[in-house]
TrEMBL record:
<dbReference type="InterPro" id="IPR055336">
    <property type="entry name" value="At4g00755-like"/>
</dbReference>
<protein>
    <recommendedName>
        <fullName>F-box protein</fullName>
    </recommendedName>
</protein>
Amino acid sequence: MHLSHDLLSPYDPKDCISCCVGASSTDHLPEEAIENTLEHDEEWRPSYWSSGGQKDPAVPECLIYSLQSELCLVDEIRIRPLKAFFRYGHPIYSAKHVRFRLGYLKPPHWSETHVYVQSDAELTDDSNYVWTYTSPEFPMLQENVMQSFKLPHSVLCIGGVVKIELLGRVHKDTFDGLYYIW
């Protein structure tokens, strides 16, 4: 009855993200951790994640999040690339494209309250997940604005995990000559 009530109730769009699972890399922990990508009320707190630097701009990155429920209807994902006001020229460290995967963590790694893994690499390793939906690739604007990526249709995510794949790097950092995504 609870499911039928929720399905028949008026649609109330809201943020479905519950918590961060992991990032494929991070440049400086904890200052640039994935947790900084979640919206929060503190204006002064840093609100960005930074990948590790790469020589090859084609190296992808991913961010994985746990959703509020193991059953979520997802129709849009919003991302805002960082404009580095503290760097010369105020570069934007965006990906070229973005793609989304929805699914669940494979057993035995999952319990009601905890993900059983040993390292960040395991947290983002595709062999630990079943992806039941993969979106098309969307181009990202090289602008410091909230970008809305609407899926071709609403997707029922059974399992409560979303993976954001950041494909291609645009900006080479002047300090170390490596490509980053922020």
